[in-house]
Design brief:
Chain A has about 375 residues and is an all-alpha fold. Chain A is about 65% helix and about 0% strand. The radius of gyration of chain A is 29 Å and the shape is elongated. Chain B is mainly α and about 350 residues long. Classes of the chains: A mainly alpha (about 375), B mainly alpha (about 350). Chains A and B meet through helix 3, helix 7, helix 9, helix 11 and helix 15 of A and helix 2, helix 4 and helix 10 of B. The structure holds zinc ion.
Chain lengths: ~375, ~350
């Protein structure tokens, strides 16, 4: 560990025994007489937090408080009051500075490193990510209300953009589903307004684990940020996604993704739905172990196509038969759901299908 | 690559019966060992811990096993006159999360008079943003959970008119994803706990009909695994707390019967700790009040009953409180017309 004053480690000397802290009045936790809530701290915990309360009471915002918050955070990183105190100190002593093409100011850089280390240690703590967000906002002069940055120099911005993408990438390499890391990454992409490399990253994650639902979510985030929902663009995406679909047919995420993707389509929606139905056909089976999410989407698309297009008695009969198997053998734990889909399907198409079937016969 | 088998568990053979007296003992003793490390480390969520434990006791009709005066005094101690918010424990900052827990506790005891509720209303009101979302506290993080806390807190006090409810609902809808679910803010991955917050908020605001119950209902149903338990996201392990988040959401959507209720009951009962009492997230793990409340809450929705135990009280799927309390306050929530019996 570094010896610098704002990165001190667990203290060997109690604050109450440190001469340089004699001027601060420690304030013990007053939990009152209630037996339901009495708290008995460990000695060191109590010592540090007594001094935290002490400096909050006097409003002191100084370098030694910065170092005190470091110890307090080390003992309990989930205490948001202490993090806020740390940010108040940073601002008061002028640490945050706008980034330029040579990078972050030296002292501010140390605060970034401190927070990044904390993030690595406690990856799912909300406070550390919140702190990182505050640091980035300071470094680029980001204004949440106008969604604008004070820093305009592309070189300077690029340094921070890459740094934050790398940080989240590192954390996601430990746990590819870390909710905080994904949120931070999305926030970074949206404030820097640069999604150009993200699809490549998502493809990499899906190649590593095609079942990574967080990566599928990110794929949608990236795709919609491009704002191109033309038939060409959607078809290209369908083709790309199909490569992942084939790898694990039973995996629900890509099927949800396809449902969402095709909902973005305008007039070309039936064309795309037909395409998906045709691609599913070879995999449709009535045996246990078949892909339930695939069949769910398959049935839903056929239902939509029948509602908006030509009746098809054969397709109708096929879906009814498939649904019977869903209820009885393929997915009995969700039998009530499939019952409901069956009723909806038959109500929508049953009678009219029969009518049209009769008409076809008469015409013939 | 993650194999799908690794994302479920195998249940022990026969689940134990529902051990209500053990659970009551577990909860009333919990937190009395105040010198233990865990107690110290969880100080930052003490208020919510109290709400979980007390609500679970109330469902078992054992609320009287904890001295009411002590609880109300604790809640009063955590009230910040200046801001109108509640902190998780004394000397912490007020936050919407703990303000909801505090108001839920006061509602259980019919003790709103213990604090200046007009201040609480102002606190909640002050945190709404122009887009309808809510900050959790003055430090400005936005999360759909805070929308639920804000709206539920005001609803319990009958003060929903203090905020822009239409915009609050609009923000919730902006968090809906392509799979029908909701994440904590726009673009964030769907998660069963956050879906509960979204659906609960819309239900209180009587705007639940703005969502497609079939699409979301299906995603929620897909959370049930072969073991009978629910996970919170695809490819995650089952956990008792998701029994509550998923089942309560499905119930609000009028689709609680879309899942295999018998299998779910078996999973929940298997998560009881037969020696200490209480429920753990999964069979064999350490029990805690959080999972105990959500295990009991789900069993209450399911109307679980066996010949050896007293029946659990009915729980309200939106507020996660005894229905009696919600009725006595005269609060009605909106439930979507059923998708089961069409
Ligand atoms: Zn859990």
């Amino acid at each position: 560990m570094s010896t610098s004053d704002d990165e001190s480690t667990t203290p060997h000397v109690f604050y109450k025994d440190r001469p340089e802290w004699q001027d601060v009045q420690p304030i013990p936790s007053d939990e009152g007489p209630s037996p339901v809530v009495a708290i008995d701290y460990s000695e060191q915990f109590a010592d540090v937090y007594n001094y935290i309360r002490g400096v909050i009471n006097t409003g002191e915002l100084s370098r030694r408080v910065l170092s005190l918050t470091c110890d307090a955070i080390g003992l309990n990183a989930a205490n948001y009051t202490v993090w806020q105190l740390r940010r108040d100190v940073l601002e008061a002593i002028g640490v945050p500075k706008l980034i330029d093409e040579s990078g972050l100011d030296k002292e501010f850089e140390k605060e970034f490193t401190f927070c990044e280390k904390m993030i690595e240690n406690i990856q799912k703590n909300y406070q550390v990510w919140h702190h990182q967000k505050a640091l980035v906002s300071w470094a680029v002069g980001y204004d949440e209300s106008t969604k604008t940055m004070q820093v305009k120099n592309p070189e300077a911005l690029d340094i921070l953009f890459k740094r934050e993408l790398q940080l989240t990438k590192d954390i996601l390499s430990y746990d590819a589903k870390n909710y905080h890391a994904w949120q931070h990454r999305q926030w970074i992409l949206s404030i820097f307004k640069d999604y150009s490399g993200e699809l490549e990253y998502v493809n990499q994650l899906l190649t590593d684990d095609v079942r990574n639902n967080s990566a599928w979510n990110q794929r949608y985030f990236v795709f919609t940020s491009m704002q191109d929902f033309s038939q060409e663009s959607l078809t290209e995406e369908l083709n790309a996604v199909w490569e992942f679909v084939k790898v694990a047919l039973c995996n629900e995420s890509p099927w949800s993704y396809l449902r969402g993707l095709i909902r973005l389509a305008g007039d070309c929606r039936p064309t795309l739905q037909k395409e998906v139905v045709a691609r599913c056909k070879p995999f449709v089976s009535k045996k246990e172990g078949t892909s339930v999410p695939m069949l769910g989407l398959y049935i839903e698309f056929i239902d939509d196509l029948l509602r908006n297009g030509e009746p098809d008695p054969e397709e109708f009969a096929e879906v009814v038969c498939l649904l019977e198997h869903m209820i009885k053998t393929i997915d009995p734990i969700r039998a009530k759901y499939w019952d409901y889909i069956m009723t909806k399907f038959v109500n929508a198409h049953g009678d009219s299908e029969l009518d049209k079937f009769t008409k076809v016969e008469i015409n013939a | 690559m993650a194999a799908s088998l690794s994302t479920d568990i195998i249940l022990p053979n026969a689940p134990p019966d529902l051990l209500l007296p053990k659970h009551a003992g577990f909860l009333s003793k919990y937190g009395t060992a105040k010198d233990d490390y865990d107690y110290c480390m969880t100080e930052f969520l003490r208020m919510s811990g109290m709400y979980w434990g007390l609500t679970a006791l109330q469902l078992m009709d054992r609320l009287d096993s904890v001295p009411k005066e002590d609880v109300v005094a604790f809640v009063q101690d955590c009230f910040h006159e200046g801001t109108g918010g509640f902190s998780p424990a004394k000397d912490h900052d007020p936050h919407l999360l703990y303000s909801l827990s505090a108001i839920q506790i006061l509602a259980m005891y019919d003790e709103f008079k213990a604090v200046d509720c007009s201040k609480v209303v102002e606190f909640v009101q002050s945190l709404q943003q122009p887009d309808g979302s809510f900050f959790g506290d003055k430090y400005g993080e936005v999360d759909i959970r805070f929308s639920f806390c804000a709206v539920a807190t005001l609803a319990l006090m009958k003060k929903l008119d203090a905020i822009d409810t239409r915009k609050a609902a609009d923000f919730i809808l902006s968090c809906q994803n392509f799979d029908g679910g909701f994440g904590s803010k726009p673009g964030s991955e769907s998660h069963a706990g956050l879906i509960y917050c979204a659906v609960g908020t819309l239900s209180i605001l009587k705007e639940i009909d703005r969502i497609d119950g079939d699409a979301l209902g299906w995603w929620l149903c897909e959370r049930q695994l072969k073991s009978g338990g629910f996970n919170g996201r695809p490819e995650k392990l089952p956990d008792v707390c998701y029994s509550w988040w998923v089942l309560a959401s499905l119930t609000i959507l009028g689709r609680g019967d879309w899942i295999d209720q018998k299998a779910l009951i078996k999973f929940i009962l298997s998560c009881q700790d037969v020696s200490t009492g209480g429920f753990a997230d999964r069979p064999g793990d350490v029990a805690d009040p959080f999972h105990t409340l959500f295990g009991l809450g789900a069993l209450s929705i399911l109307g679980y009953e066996d010949e050896t135990t007293v029946k659990l009280k009915k729980i309200n799927p939106v507020f996660c409180m005894s229905q009696e309390v919600i009725d006595s306050l005269g609060i009605e929530v909106q439930i979507l017309p059923g998708g089961g019996a069409c």
